[in-house]
Amino acid sequence: QVKLVESGGGLVQPGGSLTLSCVMSGGTLSSYAMGWFRQVPGKERELLASIRYSGGSTDYSDSVKGRFAISRDNAKNAVYLQMNKLQPDDSGIYYCAADQTWGSSWLNPRGHKFLEYWGQGTQVNVSA
Q1: So what's the pLDDT on residue 65?
Q2: Which residue in 77, 87, 80, 90 sits closest to 124, CA to CA?
Q3: For the residues 92-105, what does the mean pLDDT come to?
């Protein structure tokens, strides 16, 4: 059974940085497209960044483009989200997700709930 475990969340001041990690067990990360999502109360889960199998292709939402960077280390079965210039609006629960198929489940927000695997989330709070 594939399991995803996120870590690295916490409290950071505005303008600061954090790096989130997501480690996969029970599966081979290189077989999965991966992504990072953020959820805040009252809003739908938002896809922030995604990365294809080998790491050569990445995509970012407009809200984090230029500030966040997604990367993966298939040898370590881990995917990362480097977050810079954090702002209070970046606060929320951050989830990683995995799916063996890159397609509509990633590209269409209505498809996100169909992604194969989700982690339990890690809380990020950006506050002075």
Answers
A1: 97
A2: 90
A3: 93
